[in-house]
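Researcher: Quick test of sequence recovery. Tokens follow.
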């Protein structure tokens, strides 16, 4: 089995960052707290919300392409602003292949536009 990557996050508009749930562990909140020099409780209140049965999940913000996206996603540069402190779910995603990246490449080829971003919500 090859460890070769079949995607390039630098060319993606952040599909995975738009998931309705980015579940966090206590360790993820601790990592974010350390990154921002905050206490655990301050980081928990500022960065997380209880959602879908998860004690900690990432807060979200408005996004022109997906409606809502991770609060740490730079919507202009389309990049993570806390990459070094990102949650475990983000660190492990997606493995060797990203279905969203495959979809993005297909759509960009079909539209003959290397910058095309297919939206997932109605404007």
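Model:
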């Amino acid at each position: 089995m090859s460890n070769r990557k079949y995607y390039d996050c630098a060319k993606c508009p952040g599909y995975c960052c738009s998931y309705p749930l980015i579940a966090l562990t206590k360790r993820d909140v601790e990592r974010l707290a350390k990154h921002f020099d905050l206490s655990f409780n301050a980081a928990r209140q500022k960065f997380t919300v209880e959602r879908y049965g998860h004690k900690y999940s990432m807060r979200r913000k408005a996004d022109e392409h997906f409606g809502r996206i991770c609060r740490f996603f730079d919507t202009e540069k389309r990049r993570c602003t806390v990459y070094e402190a990102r949650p475990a779910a983000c660190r492990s995603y997606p493995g060797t292949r990203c279905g969203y990246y495959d979809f993005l490449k297909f759509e960009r080829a079909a539209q003959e536009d290397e910058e095309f971003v297919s939206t997932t919500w109605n404007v």
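DSSP finds four helices and six strands in the chain.
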